[in-house]
Design goal:
Helix content: 25-40%
Number of domains: 1
Strand content: 15-25%
Distance between the termini: 36 Å
CATH architecture: Alpha-Beta Complex
Shape: globular
Radius of gyration: 17 Å
Oligomer: single chain
Strand order of the largest sheet: 3-2-1-4-7-5-8
CATH superfamily: Spore Coat Polysaccharide Biosynthesis Protein SpsA, Chain A
Length: 240
C-alpha cells in the first residue's frame, strides 16, 4: 500500500471476556502480519470483569502492543470507548468487540481505507455481509433501529460497533453516549465528509452472551429522539 506507516489505536471494551480476549488479540496480530506499514496498539478497557478478564489483559500486555484501562465497575460500552480514545495519542482510532463477533479479516480494508476517507465501517448489511444465526426478533429490532438511524446519517450500518476513523473527526466533539451506539453519535456530531462501508460476516459469539438488553434499547430510542430533534432544529434554524 502507498503511503507511510499508519499508527492506530484499536479500543476493545471488555466485560467477562476471559476466553475470547486472548483469541481476539492473537487473531488481530496474525491478520496484520501482512500489513507491515500498520503499527497497531490495542487498548483494552475492562469494567471490573468478575471473571478475571482484566488480569488476562494485563498478561497479554506483556506479549503484545496492548494497554489496559481498569475501571471500577460496569460503566457502559460507550463510555469505555471514549476512555480508550482519550488514552490514545495516535492519529487513527478504531473499535472492535471483544466477543469475536467482529471478524479481524477485514481490518486491512478498514485501516487502509482511512487513506481515502474519514470513517470506515464494518457493515452487516452490504453485499457479501451476513449475520450468523440471527434470531428473528433481534433481526427485526436491529433492522428497525438501523432504518431510523439511516434516515439521519445516510450510512449503511450506522449502528455498527466495528469502525475506524481519523482522530480529527472528534475535534471539538463532546460524546455522551453511555450505550452501544456510539458510532451513531459520532456520525451525527463528527467532523467528516467521506465514509466507507466494508461488508463482513458477523460471527456467533463463542464463549459469551450478548450484553444488549432493554435498557440499551431505551437508551438508543432516547438518542434517536435527541438527534432527530437536533437535525430538525438545525434545518429550521438555517444551520448545516
Amino acid at each position: 500500500m502507498p503511503g507511510g506507516t499508519m499508527d492506530v489505536s484499536l479500543v476493545t471494551p471488555t466485560y467477562n471476556e476471559k476466553e475470547n480476549l486472548p483469541l481476539l488479540v492473537e487473531e488481530i496480530y496474525q491478520t496484520l502480519q501482512s500489513c507491515p506499514d500498520v503499527d497497531l496498539e490495542i487498548i483494552v478497557v475492562d469494567d471490573a470483569s468478575p471473571d478475571g478478564t482484566g488480569a488476562i489483559a494485563d498478561d497479554l500486555a506483556g506479549q503484545y502492543p496492548l494497554r489496559v484501562i481498569h475501571r471500577a465497575g460496569k460503566l457502559g460500552l460507550g463510555s469505555a470507548v471514549m476512555e480508550g480514545f482519550r488514552l490514545s495519542t495516535r492519529p487513527h482510532l478504531g473499535v472492535i468487540d471483544a466477543d469475536l463477533s467482529h471478524d479481524p479479516q477485514i481490518l486491512p480494508r478498514l485501516i487502509y481505507g482511512l487513506r481515502e476517507v474519514d470513517i470506515t465501517i464494518g457493515s452487516r448489511f452490504g453485499d457479501g455481509s451476513r449475520v450468523e444465526d440471527w434470531a428473528w426478533h433481534r433481526k427485526m429490532i436491529s433492522l428497525t433501529g438501523v432504518g431510523c438511524a439511516r434516515l439521519l446519517t445516510g450510512v449503511e450500518d450506522p449502528l455498527s460497533g466495528y469502525f475506524f476513523l481519523h482522530s480529527s473527526v472528534l475535534d471539538g466533539v463532546e460524546l455522551t453516549s453511555r450505550g452501544y451506539k456510539i458510532l451513531f453519535e459520532i456520525l451525527v456530531k463528527g467532523c467528516y465528509s467521506r465514509h466507507m462501508s466494508v461488508p463482513f460476516v458477523f460471527r456467533n459469539r463463542q464463549f459469551s452472551r450478548s450484553k444488549l438488553n432493554w435498557e440499551e434499547h431505551l437508551l438508543f430510542a432516547k438518542q434517536l429522539a435527541v438527534f432527530s430533534l437536533r437535525r430538525l432544529t438545525r434545518r429550521t434554524g438555517g444551520g448545516r
